[in-house]
Amino acid sequence: MGKVVEIRWHGRGGQGAKTASLLLADAAFNTGKYIQGFPEYGPERMGAPITAYNRISDERLTIHSNIYEPDYVVVVDDTLIATVDVTAGLKEDGAIIVNTTKTPDEVKPFLKGYKGKVCTIDARTISVDTLGKYFPNTPMLGAVVKVSGVMDEKTFLNDMVESFKHKFAKKPEVVEGNIKALERSMQEVKGI
Amino acid sequence: MSCKKELKTVTPDVKWKDITEGGVIPYAGNAELFKTGDWRSMKPIWLQEKCKQCLLCYPVCPDTSILINEEGKRIDFDFDHCKGCGVCVKVCPFKAIDFVEESK
Amino acid sequence: MAIRERMSGNEAMAVAMKQINPDVVAAFPITPSTEVPQYFSNFVADGVVDTEFVAVESEHSAMSACVGAQAAGGRAMTATSANGLALMWEILYIAACSRLPIVMACVNRTLSGPLNIHNDHSDSMGARDSGWVQLYSENNQEAYDNMLMANRIGEHPDVMLPVMVCQDGFITSHAIENIELVEDDKVKAFVGEYNPKDYLLNKANPISVGPLDLQAHCFEHKRQQAEAMKNAKKVILEVSEEFAKMTGRKYGLFEEYKTEDAEVAVVILNSTAGTAKYVIDQYRAEGKKIGLIKPRVFRPFPVDELTAALSKFKAVAVMDKADSFNDAGGPLFTEVTSAMFAKGVFGPKVINYIYGLGGRDVRSTDIEVVFNELLKIAETGTVESVYNYLGVRE
Question: pTM of the full predicted structure?
Answer without folding.
Answer: 0.93
